[in-house]
Design a protein that fits this description.
Elements: H1 12-25, E1 48-54, H2 70-84, E2 89-95, H3 98-106, E3 113-118, H4 125-130, E4 136-140, H5 146-158, E5 163-166, H6 171-188, E6 191-195, H7 201-211, E7 214-218, H8 220-229, H9 232-245, E8 248-249, H10 254-274, E9 278-281, H11 283-288, H12 297-306, E10 309-312, H13 316-329, E11 334-341, E12 346-351, E13 368-373, E14 378-384, E15 391-398, E16 403-414, E17 423-429, H14 439-442, E18 446-450, H15 454-464, E19 467-470
Parallel strand pairs: 1-2, 1-3, 3-4, 4-5, 6-7, 6-9, 8-13, 9-10, 16-19
Antiparallel strand pairs: 11-12, 11-18, 12-17, 13-14, 15-16, 15-18, 16-17
Length: 472
Amino acid sequence: MRLNVLPPATSRRSFLAACAGCAAGAACPALAAQGAAAAFAPAVEKPKIRLVFTHITPELPTWPYQGYDYEGRKKELTARLRQSCPFVEFLPVTAGNPAEARRILVNDAEVDGYLVYMIGIWTGVALTIAASNRPTLFVDDLYGGSGEFLTAYAAARRKGLRVAPVSSSRFEDVVQSVRAFDTLKRLQASAILDVSNRPPGANGSAIQDVFGTTVKQVTGDQISAAYEKADRSKAQTAAARWMKEAKRIVEPGKEEILKSAVMYVAMEDLLREHKAQAVAIDCLSLFYANKLAAYPCLGLFQFNNDGLVGACEADLPSTITMLMMSYLTGRPGYISDPVIDTSKNQIIYAHCVAPSKVFGPEGPSNPYHIRSHSEDRKGASVRSLMPLGEMTTTLEVSAARREIVFHQGKAVANIDDDKACRTKLAVEVKDVYKLLGEWDRWGWHRVTFYGDLRQPVETMAALLGFKLIEEG
């Protein structure tokens, strides 16, 4: 694994150690609300999850074995779940047959979802719970529930029920899947600012209907007014930090970077005023219409580093993708206009906003350059030199179609080419030609996250009842 973008003072070993610590921290639900983002975290109650243990009487000869201590195992797992998932309220019960499962469902109007923990087999409980078509996790306690887990999950999937599976000897995989319930709850309490002179439209309505996330329009005149009122001393502090931390400053002068910092403070003021956690700004249209005094790129870069969401071009599907994954994994997304290079089996993610803390607010920082915005060579933007040799996960969420498009690959190069947007991350994929198939339905944007995040993406898709489309 080669991380050749690091400054000389940073060793490969120390960076990887920091990355490993951050990856372990991704299981911590508080990660998305640490640091600067904590002040903007939505007020949310813990999700109530019905924890349903399933087994038959221990007197019968079956897996795990005759005379198995089901009661001791239930106590052990309940304690471990409560310790590892303090962001969820577990309501444990036991069911040994479909009739008992139906009685549980009758009284569960206020429950947010189900965790069916199969510690024994052949109860019929799992499919009965899943038939309610409420968000449900099936968990196999290996060698205890395996037979029923396999048959029940296959049947639930075939029926299109909202069920996600966990069959792993690594308990952290159960914890990560449970985080999906917390994510759904946080999304319901969150708000997105759509900074644009056009209304949010069908995408905004679909996001509100499916996720419960409020989408609020802020006009060009409103952000201009916020810019005029923004605290210049706070802006100077932000600008000084960006210039100090940048590995290189190429085109923009100090005055241009300060204007970007004032825009950052203005956007932060609007987030605070509207109690929002994400901003999507129609940057190109507003800038070209002289409605923005500066490009917002550096401010969006800072939000994404801090655990908030800053999204380009008022792209609401990408914004909800970033917000969902931030809550789910604690990591920022990178919106891009991808380019395909079939000769190298690569997709190159190109844009003028990208984070420099790809493993989350508490993770290590990678170098970045401050550049002009590429298309018009004005303002200030970011070229982020992101870590190489790492798995990346790229997706886009369509609330309107109830679908997620998804692919993965390994980061292999930070492309230096003066054409097109400043950050260009090249990723090697399994089948680059397969990546040519979905752009007419999904548009040009995709959102990239660092890490092998297949499991959390698949879990969210299943619990939402979304179709997962794998490209590439």
